Amino acid sequence: MLYLDCFSGASGDMLLGAFLDLGLPLEELTRALGSLAIDGADVSADRVDRAGIAATKLRVRTPDAHGHRHHHLPAIEAAIRRSALSPAGKDRAVDLFQRLAAAEAAIHQTPIERVHLHEVGALDSIIDIVGAVFAFEWFGIDDVVASPLNVGSGTVECAHGTYPVPAPATARLLEGVPVYAGGVAMEMVTPTGALLVTGYAREYGAIPAMTIERIGYGAGDRDVPKSPNVLRILKGARAADADGHRVAVLECEIDDMNPQLFGPLMDALLAAGALDVFYAPVQMKKGRPGTLVTVIAPPPKREALTDILFRESTTIGVRHQEMARTCLDRKTETVETAFGPIRFKVATRHGEVLNAAPEFDDCARAAAEHHTSIKIVQAAAISARRDRC
Fold it and tell me: Beta-carbon neighbour count of residue 88 at 10 Å?
């Protein structure tokens, strides 16, 4: 698992610096970023001191004529599609930018296709976001937990003027997430940092019971006396005897809704951070057939998901409770096959592999490219992994 310790806030370069400190090879990162083919940039990293803590500082140097030029969403999406990310990584990066554009559009009451990404449309921010997507893929760990985020205090200068911390886009991206104001009076969570942490964290809270294997520190731009301006990532495994992490379970029964609305309802809940959504047929009072809606989610997402249930369905009441959940340790492996690379989800307990399944999206893509059936690609992937093991 990865624990993102945001005691001094979060930004894209801090997150990438922590990943480099954690073991991500700089040459692998620069190779992936070089394929963006927009404007050109020099990416480097060095060791710095932040209030007595040695950390890795990511540095992005851009040509003066292009470094501060802001790109619109279509240009950013086109660059991502040209990148060396995996197909799933490209989709993830595009989704992140679309989420950001939606937040900006809502703030400025502008259609999403016309929104101007003032704060994160510059090349260095694009590199931070795409680089972070690559880093999460490289480590292949889906179990990501974050601390509550220290947003800082005071004011910040944005493209449209001076605003209180957190900035409008940052605050929008942090909806449903635990935050607090502490420490130095400055912006400590940037829109890029908010976007990435909330895009990957499955839950928020104190450090879970875990065995720490490695620690990475990523430095921010400022060196604040007696307050280390760093983001810390703890990499390790959840403790074998831990009760598991907490989840909120939301339920409601519906017997008077157009069945066509259940699909969009599920899509909206998953997009808002639900871990799982499922429907089951039930018999309700007066003999009416109905549908039991069950939503499993990180506890901080409960309020936002309850709002969606009320807004997008006909229910007039939602039950909720908090439970402990025990999960297998999960990681991602890539296997080379005759149809190209296929990723596997591998689940283990106490070091023993209990489940290994090829990613369906990878198999479907490979099948389409080679004009064959998905089950043939799946069989080839399973055979290749068995031979390798």
Answer: 16
